[in-house]
Amino acid sequence: MREHVRPSQTHAEEVVANAPGENFPVALRLLPARHRRHLTNLYFFARLTDDLGDEARDAGADTGADVTALRLRLLDELAADVDRIYSGETPQSPVMRAMAETVRECGVPAQPLLDLIEANRQDQRVTRYPAYPDLERYCELSANPVGQIVLYIFGVATPERIALSDNICTALQLVEHWQDVAEDLGNGRIYLPGEDLERFGCTEADLAAPTVGPAVRQLMIFETDRASRLLDQGAPLVGTLRGAARLAVAGYLAGGRAALAAIRRQHYDVLAGTPRGRKSRQTAELVKAYLRGR
Description:
Helix content: 55-70%
């Protein structure tokens, strides 16, 4: 893990420096520059928030409690930067100064930004989810705000569209968790609902195995189908949009469908390696979603 000083300096600069190597959705490369700029600002903010919650540590943090305290303090500093944006002050972090431009130009409300930070606070306190509704409430903080901000960036945010977007974003978050079961367990977290583990007769030891057994495979079939249904429920959002907004949302939808296909192609063995969606499948899903409007 990386040593960390403060979000306004060292880490923010590192996030920006590493961003070109990240896999942006295919559609984003096709969007007008003004939209790409705002979506990139959102990406940097979300990436910085996640990194503070998952990776921040320094030489003085000797115990797990020390690391948790450091991460919570840094997340509080980031939230203070959000407050500076809405009070007319200049944020300390270069990432947040860029995000301030997006907030001003696109009318983004504060709550989605604060919710993303709160999700990472929750990651410091909560490592297991007893039931699916508990996980769904976590996704309301960790994923849905991203889609809401995207709609504001394109100037198309309405209650009806936000509801559909929330379905897509929760589904995308679930898919990411199902791809990363082994990695999350290595970090001490299990996002698979406890009630589902019990239903399929799975233990935490089963999740630590090098490959899935029959019970875990059946569990992952169930969870993958759940995420797929939720993604399809939000998909009609694409048909309500036009132009660049339609292309962007179709791209996010396509990314989720390609990831689901990768899990199935790997026969649901998410423990043997992280299933990754193929670019060719993602492109094909993008074209299909854009043309069909769902």
